[in-house]
Amino acid sequence: MTDPGRPGARPTHAGPKQARSRVTRRHLLEAAVSCLAEHGWAGSTVAVVAERAGVSRGAAQHHFPTRESLFTAAVQYVAEERSTALRELFHTAPAPRAEVVHAVVDLYTGALFRAALQLWVAASNEEQLRPPVVELEAKVGRETHRIAVELLGADESVPGVRESVQGFLDMARGLGLANVLTDDTARRERVVTQWAAILDTALGPAPD
What is the Cα–Cα distance from 31 to 49, expressed in whole angstroms? Predict the structure, then answer.
C-alpha cells in the first residue's frame, strides 16, 4: 500500500471533488442572490435557484437541505460580497473623497443591495431568516462603517465625524432604496456631488 505522505504516492480524488463541491455551492449562492434581486422571496424557490445554477434540485438539496438553509447561507454570502466589494474599491487609503462617495453609492444601488433588500423584507415575515439577517446586517454595517472611515481618511476622535460618516452611509442606503422602483440616476448624481462637498467640510482636510 502506498504511503500518501511519501513522494510518488498516488494522489487522492478528495481535492478535485471538494473543489467541485465548492464551485457548485458558490454557483447556488450566486443564483440565490440573483433570484432574490430579480424575483423576490416569493419567486425564489430551491427549484428555481437550482435551475438557474445549472444543477439538479437533488444536488442543491445536498448542499442546502431546506429553502431556509439556502437563503440563510445567501445572507452570509451577500454580506461577505458587499464587504469585499467595498474593500476592493481602492487599493490604498485614504482615497479622493469624491471618488469614495460615488463608489459607495454605486455599491448601494447595485444588485447586491437589491438582494439584501429582498432578504430584509423576507426576514420581516420569516422567523427562520430573521436572526441571521439581523446579525449579519449588524456585522456588515459595522464593517462598512469601518472601511468608509478608512477610505475617507476620517478622524473619529473629532466630535461629529462619526455621525457624519454614518449619515453618509444612511444617505447611500436611502438612494439605493429610491433606485429600486425607478432609475434615479440624474437626481442621485446631484445629491452625491453635494454630499462629497459636505463631507469635505465636516471631516476636514484628508491626511496625506
Answer: 6
* Cα gap 179→113, rounded to integer Å: 11
Chain segment 14-28, per-residue pLDDT in tens? 577 788 888 999 999
206 with 97: CB under 8 angstroms? yes
**139-168 residues labelled b (16+ CB within 10 A) or e (exposed):** ebeebbbebbbebbbbeeeeeebeebbeeb
Cut 0.85: pTM above it: no
- Cα gap 163→34, rounded to integer Å: 33
Nearest C-alpha neighbor of 164 from the set 148, 179, 175, 178: 148
188-198 tens-digit pLDDT: 889 999 999 99
C-alpha to C-alpha distances, 63 to 26, 70, 86, 136, 181, nearest whole angstrom: 10, 8, 28, 21, 34
**pLDDT tens per residue, range 83-92:** 787 777 777 6
For residue range 57-105, what is the model confidence (pLDDT) as tens digits?
999 999 999 888 898 888 788 778 877 877 777 776 677 888 889 988 9
Nearest to 118 by CA among 176, 56, 50: 176
